[in-house]
Every structure is written in structure tokens, then in C-alpha cells.
Amino acid sequence: MLRTFAQVEQRRFMLPVLVFLVTMFFGFVVQAAGSYFLRVTGDPIANGYRTTLSYTSALIGDAFLLPLVNVFMTTQLLDWRRRPRRHEVAAAVLGGLALTVFVHLYQAANALLNWTMPVPYRWEPLGYEHAAFMFAELSFVLFFWGEAALVMRERPRAIFTHRVGMALLCSLVFLRLLLGDYGYF
């Protein structure tokens, strides 16, 4: 682990590449592979419900936009060089948990069924993986915007960067795709 960190420190381009690849792997590849496997094996879940490969928000958002968001946010956090306090991290984690639980309960209560939740309140194993990814992603996003607010209070002009703008733009496009996939647009 320390050797990997030392390599990343020496080669700055590696961190954005690693962030992009890890986000893409856990946000899209795991789900897409599960979806593909179920289709190939003829599992009734894949035939009866929408899977990852049928959602625009997954094909464009999870595979490309969210990894970009994480790259922009990570590199901006490094540029700000602000040391977060424990309560800032804890607030982001609790907020991520609350949002994840809310979204999944909303999905179940409104019978927004798909291949990860074919029956309300009953998730398949890949549904739990997606929930874990969603929790981590939302926690990171909340942490970033909390840090952005603190930086803006300390150094108002430091918030106006292309990375912050691109993170916001990619996030809004992803949200639009996600809401469109569920029929809200």
C-alpha cells in the first residue's frame, strides 16, 4: 500500500487515473458484469426487469460521468490542501448514509423495481453492492461540497475553478439522466 502511494506521489497523473478506474469499476463494471451474466445464463430476473445495461444513467453516468466527477473533486481537494476535521468527515458519512437509506426506501415504497430489487424491500446481492457504492459516492460528494463551502468562507475566490464547474456540470447531467431513467423527465 505504501509503495503504491509512493508511486502516485511521484507520478501525479496516476491519482486521477486510479480514481477514474476505481469509480468506474465499482459504479459500473461490477453491475454491468452482473447484468451481462444474468442475461447470458437466462436468469428470469434479467428477462423480467430492467438491468444496468438498459439505463442511460448507468451507461453514461456510472461509466463515465461519476468517474469524472470523482477525478475533478479529488484533484480539487488536493489543490485546496485543506485538512478536514473529524466532524466534517463524520457529517459527510452520516449524510451519505441518510441519503442512501432514503433513496432505497423511496425506491421500495414506490415499487421502482429493477433487477437489483425485484420485490419491494428485497434487494438482490448486486443491489447491496450498488447501495454500498452509492453510500460511498454520496458521502464523498457531500464531503467535497462541505469542503467547498468552507474554502469559500476562508478564500472566496478559490472556489471558482474549472474543476468545481466541471464537477457540478457532470453531476447535473448525471442527475438529469437518472431522473429521466425513472420517468421524472
What portion of residues belong to β-strands?
A: under 5%
Helix content: over 70%
Q: What is the residue-averaged pLDDT?
A: 91
Q: State the end-to-end CA separation.
A: 44 Å
Q: What ranges have pLDDT less than 50 throughout 5 or more consecutive residues?
A: none
Number of domains: 1
Measured on Cα atoms, how large is the radius of gyration?
Answer: 18 Å
What is the topology?
Layout lengths: L1 H9 L3 H27 L3 H5 L7 H25 L5 H24 L15 H30 L7 H20 L4
Helix pairs in contact: 2-4, 2-6, 4-6, 4-7, 5-6
Supply database-style keywords:
single chain, 185 residues, globular
Overview of the structural elements:
The protein is mainly alpha-helical and 185 residues long. It has one domain. Helix content is 76%, strand content 0%. The termini are far apart.
Short overview:
The protein is mostly helical and 185 residues long.
